[in-house]
Design brief:
Elements (H helix, E strand, L loop, with lengths): L1 H18 L1 E3 L5 E8 L4 E9 L10 E8 L7 H14 L7 E8 L8 E4 L2 H9 L9 H13 L7 E8 L6 H13 L3 E7 L5 H11 L3 E4 L5 H12 L3 E11 L3 E4 L8 E4 L5 E11 L3 E10 L3 E4 L3 E7 L5 E5 L4 E4 L23 H16 L5
Parallel strand pairs: 4-5, 4-7, 7-8, 8-9
Antiparallel strand pairs: 1-2, 2-3, 3-14, 5-6, 10-13, 10-16, 11-14, 12-13, 15-18, 16-17
Helix pairs in contact: 2-3, 2-7, 4-5, 5-6
Amino acid sequence: MRKKAITLSFSLLLVFVLCGAATAGDNVTVSKTAVSTGSDTATVTITINGPPANSSATGTDVVYALDCSGSMSGEPLQASQDAANNIVNKMNPANQQAAVVNWDSTIQPSSIGLTTDYTAVHAAINAGVAAGSTNMAAAIQQAIAYLDASTMAGNTHNIILLSDGYPDSQADAITQAQAAAAKGYKLFTIGLGDSVDAAFMTQLATITGGKYYAAPSGSDLDQIYNDIFSQFTSQTATNIVVTDVLPSYISVVGNPTIIPNSNTKNADGTTTLVWNVGSLSTGQTWTVSYNVKSSQYGTLPTNVQATVSYNDPEGIPKTATLPVPTVTFTKPATNGTTVTAKTVGMQTSGVPVAGLISALLLVMGGLLLPRRK
């Protein structure tokens, strides 16, 4: 009895897996569903999710360039330091180095170069003191120097520069951003508060292929840092191709939401749909839906087989097999109305049958009986 129970449990688990999502290791995840939309029709949906973030697989160097000018005094500086500390806690010492540039008119002595000693990094972040003006060019220049000294070959190089105001010299800051871009270093800029030149901060980031983030208040910084950090740990699957083979009794109605790159009718009556998806990175999703009609009835699979081939983030070719969903198709009811000859009682017209007969008899009697003189 126990053996049968174990076998039944395993079978139920297998059915659940086949009808749900399929996972290709730690890389892309794929799913396929089919939902009945009529007696003999259904909608099929295929979804592919890019690989998850993986901090252990992505080597990166990050310089936290934190504005410590006089206007940052109090809550702004504290919020800036808290958010930076929170993201450092997510870093992996195996292949991710951090540096800190505390800057105002000059570079503060509490700044620290690239290291995996995150205790020292936290100490440097917390040591920043609000004073002086906003020498943004000096901050970027120092960040570049720290990245130049990286000891981890192959790491990506990134600068996160936070400020709440205008730089002492926009021209000098742009020159330093161009120097960073020439070395392949990305600059992500964050504007804290409402006294920031957003257009200028966007220009700085764009020069290097980075991105600008507006933070109306300190409470926005955690989400912004998380978004930036996810880009450091993002992974990408490439050369993604979806191949879906439909049975001979299934036909596609109308066009799929994404037109397939090829739609082939095979000699055995099956149909092969192919989509060249391209690449998907962490957080990206590709979805296609299409409507089908069945010429056979019963609980039937909506496809013969479906696969997703791709190269994983390390360039290794892989294939994921999509689930094969089933739908119960039934013969549709006849749409037209069949009319057959039959006697229709007058009652259906609202006139009493008995009354009508009586009236007819009276009329006929009046015609046939002789009139008295």
